């Protein structure tokens, strides 16, 4: 088991499903002149669990928004290979901020995507309650967002993204606001689900440990301008469990990933560490 | 626990101050406005006396009160007529204002194309176009309603439009991602988000529909028995019956305040679970 | 009976007595008309309703609007003038150096309504040297006049002096404009040309009925008419009505001059021409208006109702 | 790169549609409102013709336009008079509305004590109290301003108050923690946060101060030479000069629209960096 | 070096400065009936670097707000021993959410606390620019919050809290949205500052590693109702550096802390894990 360094090619070595989406030379320049992404090439295969890892401000959220179609690239193209059959409303998205309806209670917030698909409260209730239980929020159905703690809000947001069982799940630091124990639990839950249904996950995280534990491919990005610094496969078999988490292999992988991340941060144009 | 007791004094001042203030505020909240109101009325009385203002110009509050009592039957039956127009036109203003705002929210095109007409309606002096209304509208109530509506609908339209356009970007993205239809976006996102703005507009429109009802009656004239407060005011003015004129004005003011309080309450009840403007200060 | 509507230019009052009388005692009905009277009011303008054909007859204040109608190419005519004199007065406080007509222009404020400002005030400015800048709108509340002893105010000789006396406690000086050169007919009956052409008998009936109504109202039993007035305008008092009728008679507003022979409603070409010339000179009316189009004498000057005068 | 070219068609439809729509929107944004305006005017003309409406009741737009041209000198000098009152009273409404809102924001007490008076001002018909104003105010401009101000200030007051109370709780906590004085909290937090609401109120007040200026002139009259549009309207009404009356109304409407556009622009410039309602849709 | 388990006593073993604040039997019940805190006893000494660790929703933020005076307890008292001399405006607070003025640019947001103390732009500029450099945001002075990434916003918030050099620094998961490398850097920076100036820090975190690395005392909280589960001193000498981070002692401490946290989570009334 080792980190397989891959060239910055659109094809990842470890992909095994058919191609779902390819980003080709994608760039994003905001109207204020900030280049958030430049020349990003990335292929996502069906069933991938892909992590985006990188320093703050390197364009991870921007990339996720591009993939979700919430933003359009200023250069390059997104190639949805199976676009004929792919429906954008089959994407689940966990925003970096909770993004809840402030006037609706927890139940209604999680119900929302189902409601938009036409499911009545009664029809949706079992799924909603199940998701709420998964994120340990049973009993808080009637609380409104301002009555929740930061982590609880984020969990509502996670429940909402997953309640539709989407084909593609885009998650922007979903577990960042959770304690490590709960986080591990949710990591395990997510992996279990993923193995069962093999949807595609693009997962933004700041945690090297989390990215290595969860994903079959890790994309490390660098900032100024945001770009893919290195991409590698994590060739550990699934299911991954607590044993894997404590294995020396995992530790080694993490250390290597860490080194890549350090490389990415240092490769950032001087300005990043100006102050020092 | 004695140790604690020993320390409490060090934080008492701050805490005690807060508690005292809270209690004061609870009482003051109702007492002070009342006191100020009474003070204002007393001042009015004093001004009349000190300046020897004759009662046909500005009657003393006591006289007005007396008139309010003596002419109660007449004034209240007129009040009912005015109130009827007020509430009907407020209802229409809500329907019209929100309806138009929703329409405008559908697309920038529609908004830019039809907002000018709304402005034209807002700025057209009713006195000037009333002859036209008078010619083409037969029903007296319809005439009055139309006039009052023209006066009242714009704040609701304008504020609701603003509210519909102030929806958090991320929430909008969320709805887009979930393939929400225009209608769903409106129903579940934009209308609730616009609520505080709409309710703000409603508070403005409440008073305006009252004044609109009065102005409409001024312009449209009264037909015999069904004359509202405006007719009373004109008549009282003409007859130099200042006490009755001011009694009518006081009635209008009281109703205005009442409408505002009711709308504020409604607004509070709708928003209290989530919007800053209505949240109780929980510390 | 044919239904017709007559629009007055004010709330029901004794100045409309003749018409109410004719309705109340069936004078109109006798010649085949079922007349409905709709009141005007301080801010209510009824003339557009006449122009649009929503009402059949409208009570004009003076002749200027008829001239304006010709000027604007509007086919509207005056068919009768039930007031020989405009009851419009200017009032002033006694003993304030405003006791003669010539003094009035020295007042601090002229409190005048919109209609007055657009008609006789123009004449007062240009002919008599009143200062246009001193005009303040009259919102039909005499309090500002009473409060300001140096002000003058317009009024109907039949109404405002009464109110001022009652509340202000003094009888103001009254200057009837008609006595100082404002010799327009007033309380005219305005009709669209179309009605004259197509239903002359209706016009005739209304004009005749009104004349008879006025005779009966002034000289006969007017209780029924007054009851109707009070029903339409609940704030009207018997005291006020009595005062009005007395003033109408005292100043010969309805029945004086030409009416002795021609009957109430009378108009003469010469007087209209002379008023027009005066207005042209005062630049209130445009020159070169064919004023023959502003009126017709076809329905009046027949001495109708003279027999009713006791 | 050929491979990419080969795939582009698969996403072209969506992208192309978007681009097409954007281009259309850029054009439509100005063309469509214009077209609708022209259509409305054409309809007005047709209605006049089809129903044989005589020009002294509702003149055809051509006639009004002609009058607008012929009487330009007269109308525009009147317009200037009205505009002067409009802008002065709008300025006063801003000062008064924001000033009162700031005062009310100081404490719930003050708000509950004095808001009723603001409502009384809002709902009192100017016609009814003009005699009082007339007796105690000498200067003509002051009278006009007072009347117009009474009409216009309330929406600004109401909306700004709402805005000042809608500040994010956490931000308020932040200021408290940093020991901000009331004044600092107002200056650096509540006023900026209330901006969108205030500007919404301003847009309503813009039209109201115009109509207020007109109504004020209706009620307070004009002094001789310096007569504004209201006098023109009254005069045209009495002189049965419908074309000129409508020309004056059209002028008022155009000014109303212009004021709204200017205020919208100002609002956009102030808010575009941060508030949703003014943000460009960046995708 | 070992975790010293301390009884739930108001006095912590490792404190060495004079007492600053004692929470005595503090409870907080929100008006909707949720008991956020119950019977919390906690002593904070001057110069402490105290971490609050615990599952999501256990009342960490609530406790911080109580300490800052943004909220008042429904039972019990907060005893500021030195209250005679202690000024509440000498507290720096990093909220769990960035809480920036949306209309002000980055510079103005960081300037704010100084501005409120009466410093002009020119006078404040050196401090502001230095803090911005410390959080790697040099060059973004003129960006408004909506143009920043999630992590960048949080860093602005951190800069703002520290620009006044407060005597007490309350931080609610300040580094949660940052990648591990940047986080380590900022950890080191914070420690360095703290050692130099010995202000008092109360630091909420979800990361066992972070809490052990940074603090001299760790308070582990449990939920339903929120309470202090266990409190212990971390008796490792300062300065702590990369060597400490890779030392087996550190790993052992972390493992033990983790166990305590697991204990806290499991001690939570059944409802917390209802769904499983
Ligand atoms: N709406 C916007 N307008 C202008 N610039 C933006 C906008 N959104 C993001 N940026 C800039 O784009 C860059 C990338 O932002 P992005 O949010 O993608 O970063 P990120 O990798 O998600 O960072 P983090 O981990 O902190 O969330 C940043 O430099 C940011 O300043
Ligand atoms: N304003 C409020 N009204 C009612 N309940 C509240 C309010 N704020 C917090 N709570 C409740 O209090 C409890 C503690 O919340 P708190 O925010 O302190 O948790 P926390 O430990 O900071 O969690 P996290 O790590 O997720 O931020 C939660 O159960 C929450 O639902
Ligand atoms: Mg991000
Ligand atoms: Mg928290």
From TrEMBL, chains A, E:
Ranges where the ABC transporter domain occurs: 21-250
Protein name: Nitrate/sulfonate/bicarbonate ABC transporter ATP-binding protein
Family the UniProt entry places it in: Belongs to the ABC transporter superfamily.
Keywords (A to Z) from UniProt: ATP-binding, Nucleotide-binding, Transport
InterPro entries: AAA+_ATPase (IPR003593), ABC_transporter-like_ATP-bd (IPR003439), ABC_transporter-like_CS (IPR017871), ABC_transporter_ATP-bind (IPR050166), P-loop_NTPase (IPR027417)
SMART domains, per database record: AAA (SM00382)
Family matches, as SUPFAM superfamilies: P-loop containing nucleoside triphosphate hydrolases
Coiled-coil regions, chain positions: none
An example Gene Ontology molecular-function term: ATP hydrolysis activity
UniProtKB/TrEMBL annotation, chains B, D:
Keywords recorded for this protein, A-Z: ATP-binding, Cell membrane, Membrane, Nucleotide-binding, Transmembrane, Transmembrane helix, Transport
One GO CC term, this protein: plasma membrane
ABC transmembrane type-1 domain segment(s): 79-267
CDD domains: TM_PBP2
Membrane topology: Multi-pass membrane protein
GO molecular function: ATP binding
Primary location class: membrane
Annotated transmembrane regions: 27-44, 85-105, 117-137, 143-164, 197-220, 245-271
InterPro entries, sorted: MetI-like, MetI-like_sf
Protein localization: Cell membrane
Superkingdom assignment: Bacteria
Family named by the database record: Belongs to the binding-protein-dependent transport system permease family.
Protein name according to UniProt: ABC transporter ATP-binding protein
Species of the source: Mesorhizobium helmanticense
Lineage: Bacteria, Pseudomonadati, Pseudomonadota, Alphaproteobacteria, Hyphomicrobiales
